[in-house]
Amino acid sequence: MRIQSLIVLISCSLLMLGCASKTERQFISGCKSGGIEGSTCSCIYDKLEDKYGEDGLKNNIYTLQQTESFQMDMVNTSYQCMKE
Fold it and tell me: Which residues make Cβ contacts (< 8 Å) with residue 11, sequence separation at least 6?
């Protein structure tokens, strides 16, 4: 019974990882490489995606010159997620 529960948990985790967009995976990977916990990175991404949408967030992340307002949103969101 415990082994079946573990298999189900691992399967669900792998499915959830597979559903993440390329942008989300890259954001979280880069965030974690900066020394931030994965759950905090996911929180930051989710909050920014809620505000900007997936395409808007992708455009802001992959541009060489991010707007000052986007940079401030990222900083403020990071602080909020670290508190949670």
Answer: none
**Residues 10-33 pLDDT 10s:** 444 444 455 678 889 899 999 999
The pLDDT assigned to 1 comes to 45
Residue-range domain boundaries for the chain: 21-83
Instruction: Give the orientation angle of helix 38-61 with respect to helix 68-83, to 10 degrees.
Output: 170
d(CA 15, CA 30): 21
If we measure between CA atoms, which residue out of 25, 46, 51, 40 comes closest to residue 78? Answer: 40
